[in-house]
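Lab meeting notes turned into a lecture example. A postdoc, R.K., suggested we walk through two folding results consecutively so the class can see how the record format repeats. The first protein's sequence and structure tokens come next.
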Amino acid sequence: MRWELGHSVGTIPRSSDLRSNGCCIRLAAATLTDVASRFFYATHIVATKLFAMSRILRASLIGAACVAVLDIAGAMVLAFARSGAEPLTVLQSVASGALGKSAYSGGITTALIGLAIHTGIALVAATVFMLVASRVPALTRRPWLWGPVHGLGVWAVMYLIVLPQRWPQAFPNFEPGQLAGQLFCHLFLVGLPIGIVASRVLGSRDRVD
């Protein structure tokens, strides 16, 4: 009896109100589900892009490190064999592109500048190949071919375009001994390592998927 007095008939929800509330709840649930689905899809896309970028960045850094070491080592060996030049002089010669003749009197400081410039060029060469290889997977399947082809392209850019702009009286230089050393270094100490790294780091996606 107290329950009946404490709850008037007017406060009891009608069936139409219950149906209306149910529709609102279902609509809200569907909206939330759709928003959550879109959010997780966008998150997946962003994560995939970031992962792909991280692979390219990792491959570029590894490739650049390999090239920086192998190419400068090859240049030092060839310079010593030709003229007895010391390793420090080789690095200073790289720095002379930016500093001029004063690079040869700068000691270890200008040698380190030369090393930094050399490494920067190696990073550009590696990054260009990795970006293209990420779009053209065929390049990662035949690193023994496409790596040296890329190295030949790097040689052409450096020795036919860049260096002649800085030293037009000395480049291009097609003396057989010089040319053979340049091509060897760029095909097998620049292009090939970049191709192998691309195959290992970027090509692994194709093997896993």
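The second example is placed directly after the first for contrast:
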Amino acid sequence: MDAPLNVLPCPRLPHPHCPKPHPPWRTTGRAALTARLDAGAKAHTHRGGSGGDCVQVGTDPGSRDRPTTMHSMGVHIQPLTGHGVVTRTQLLASGLTRATLQSLIETGDVVRLDRSRFAMPGTEPHITTAVAAGGTLTCVSALRHHGARILAADAIHVRRPIRRRRGRNLEESVVECAAPSGMPDHPLDGVDAALGIALTNHSDEDAMVILDSILNLRIRSRSELHVALQGHSMRATRLFARADAGSESVLESVVRHRLRTRGIGVRTQAPIPGLGRVDMLVGKSLLVETDGYEFHADRESFREDRRRDRRAAALGYSVVRLTWEQTFSGWPQVLADISAIIATRRHLRQPRTPPTGSKRPMRQ
């Protein structure tokens, strides 16, 4: 049975969006949220004598999610932290009446997802779709929600227990991922659970992009990831060992992974005297730079890249600059060109050291 929402006493002030003054409120109980809801989510209820129920389901003050407030028929609702999905039992236990809940459903202020679960205002559409399909948002979709970088994934990735699969056809935009049985039935998987499923269902390249971004963006530390991946496959352990916190983009992770897979040694974010940090250094003097659109979309960035290339050539470096299209549509030719440079041992030439005191801007 679902636990009621955590009910907290309200301050003796009217709700900021409520037009009617409230007499001193009484609380309707106190209980912890179940494991189905994020630990930071809180809700509180106050009841006014002249204006129906006033229910507020809100975010924890420390949450990064910005609450969206909605006022309808005297009911003030804010989405729960992280997902915004609650059960009928939790809403009724918080003090909301059945009549008011039905009115909110009819006006579209609350969306019914199935017989017992509802989406509050501001719920992310992907979570709504996953729950309506009887599942949990997981894999790369959940990781993107938590801030990780992933390769293009237009589909919504869900996992479903067997009991929720009957009679529910998935939309074309929804993909069901293989997942261990017995996982908690809640709207959104956390980082560790979603990562485990992503490592099971996706290629080494996809997994490397995810692992790199989790480390680079400090979503998890390397020690935390080590603990989270204990008990996973040898493949997961191997990929984790190769993950690089220095990779700053999807494109950089993909190029590094492909080069290392072919036995080409690569140093990431290597500092070059007189030039600054470069995306990748092969040998002593071959620089591989990736031009992801997000970092090179303006004219100023274009000019700065060309200035760096000119400076690198003056110092004796060879530069290979790769775009997204070249990497994903023309990789065989890219690999052939880099292999040709390595075959002539040009990547082992000793570059020139800039004069002492040379002041060239460093890329941060």
